[in-house]
Design a protein that fits this description.
The structure holds 2 protein chains of 2 kinds. Helices cover about 70% and strands about 5% of the residues of chain A. By secondary structure, chain A is mainly alpha-helical. Chain A has one domain. In chain A, the strands form 2 sheets. Chain A has a 3-stranded mixed β-sheet with strand order 1-5-4. Chain A has a two-stranded antiparallel ribbon with strand order 2-3. In chain A, helix 7 runs parallel beside helix 10. Helix content of chain B is about 90%, strand content about 5%. Chain B contains 2 helices and 2 strands. Chain B has a two-stranded antiparallel ribbon. Classes of the chains: A mainly alpha, B mainly alpha. The interface between A and B is large, with 50 and 38 residues. Chain A: Its main location: membrane. Chain A: Key component of the proton channel; it plays a direct role in the translocation of protons across the membrane.
């Protein structure tokens, strides 16, 4: 199992490697957008502009197929950012791995602060459990054991915190739009039918992020497993990496589409 | 924070992601969507302009074509009229010349026959005069020979009658 370093601040837990990947992915998206739109021309477009226009057309197509054409233009930026962020985030984790291994065997003790960051937990009990496991792995004398392996490079979308954040932004925004359009209508639509209460407050907030997280996380777990198998895992790994590219693209498309569907349910005139 | 060991939901990471995503959204909106929307709007206008100018050009070409066709038809009608007029004029001229020639020949024929008649009368007259003088001469000769008027009268009368018949 791979660990990540966490720290607690203002009563909240932050995962350092995930935050690093969030920043890396955001910067990649940002530089891609700026790079591809730096030399725009309204005449015959060149290479990168074609790609950017294709992406924008694609995302606009998703937006326009769910949200009424009058209001669709206002959601293209959100859909584009969501799509690019999730798509690139999914693919980034497939590029390579950056792992660091830590153990106590060379007469070099891992610091207490480091162990604390590995064992950040909600309860003391959990912390104790983790501490035992970490201590065991750190002091392992098995020559095949790597000690505590920290994964620094992974898809940000393989972390539930990230997918929940994205989903919550979309869902909160959709409710904000619904309330802004008509508070009474929103109340009636959301609370009158128990199925709708279930849908709005349990089903949507769980399925939207967990679908993305589950797909990408499972993909990365399988990649880690195939990597640990060694030479026999190389062909399945190759196939699985190809399939993961496909899954990553499809999940980005699905998340963006569902986001637009959920927004359209609050924005469009007819439900 | 929900912790299931390998999988955990951390509020700090979640909040960080939310803030970073919102910042990214603003940046994308400003640096990518702004220029793209502007460019697409410019392209839309460009295309609309091109279409309307092409439409206008087509209309102009059609108007010009109609004008050309009209002018050509006019020219054709005019040339036809000119040719018709010329042909008519030529045939008129020809018939006039023919008629004039006919008239001239008729006149000449009439003149000639009149002249001829006149000459014949003149010749008759001259002949009669000569005959008269010859008759007188003859008579005088006869009288000179034998003055038997009564006897010769029948001879002269017969002669004169013969001459008068021949003339």
């Amino acid at each position: 199992m791979h660990y990540s370093l966490r720290f607690e601040w203002l009563g909240m837990v932050f995962d350092i490697s995930t935050i690093l990947m969030i920043l890396v992915t955001s910067l990649v998206v940002l530089f891609m957008c700026i790079g591809m739109t730096r030399k725009l021309t309204s005449a015959t477009p060149g290479g990168t502009q074609n790609v950017m226009e294709w992406i924008v057309d694609f995302v606009t197509g998703i937006t326009k197929s769910y949200i009424t054409p009058k209001k669709a233009a206002g959601f293209v930026s959100l859909a584009l950012t969501l799509f690019l962020y999730i798509f690139l985030g999914n693919q980034l984790g497939l590029l390579f791995n950056v792992n660091t291994a830590h153990h106590n065997s060379h007469g070099q003790e891992v610091s207490q602060g480091f162990i604390d960051m590995l064992t950040v937990s909600t309860s003391n009990e959990m912390k104790q459990q983790k501490l035992e496991k970490v201590t065991e792995e750190l002091n392992s004398t098995d020559p095949h054991a790597h000690g505590v392996v920290i994964s620094w490079w992974k898809s940000p979308t393989a972390t539930p915190s990230v997918t929940f954040a994205l989903a919550l932004i979309v869902l909160l925004y959709s409710h904000y739009l619904g309330i802004k359009k008509s508070f009474g209508g929103w109340l009636k639509h959301t609370f009158l039918n128990p199925i709708h209460i279930l849908e709005e407050f349990i089903i949507k907030p769980l399925t939207l992020p967990l679908r993305l997280f589950g797909n990408i996380f499972a993909g990365e777990v399988l990649i880690a497993f195939l990597l640990s198998v060694g030479i026999f895992g190389s062909i399945p790994l190759f196939i699985w990496l190809g399939y993961s590219v496909f899954v990553g693209s499809v999940q980005a498309f699905i998340f963006t589409t569902l986001a637009m569907v959920y927004l359209s349910q609050q924005v469009n005139e007819d439900h | 924070m929900l912790d299931f060991g390998a999988v955990s939901l951390e509020w700090g990471t979640l909040l960080t992601q939310a803030i970073v995503f919102l910042l990214l959204l603003l940046a994308v909106r400003k640096f990518a969507m702004g220029p793209i929307v502007g460019m697409m709007e410019k392209r839309r206008q460009h295309i609309a302009n091109e279409i309307s100018s092409a439409e206008q050009g087509r209309k102009e070409a059609e108007a010009l074509l109609a004008e050309q066709r009209r002018v050509l038809d006019e020219a054709r009608a005019e040339s036809k009229a000119i040719i018709d007029r010329a042909a008519k004029q030529a045939s008129d001229e020809a018939s006039k010349i023919v008629a004039e020639a006919q008239a001239a020949s008729e006149r000449m024929k009439a003149d000639a026959s009149a002249e001829l008649a006149r000459e014949v009368e003149k010749a008759k007259l001259e002949l009669r005069e000569q005959m008269t003088s010859l008759s007188v001469l003859l008579a005088s000769k006869i009288i000179e020979k034998e003055l038997d008027e009564a006897a010769q009268k029948s001879t002269v009368d017969k002669f004169l009658a013969q001459v008068g018949d021949r003339l």
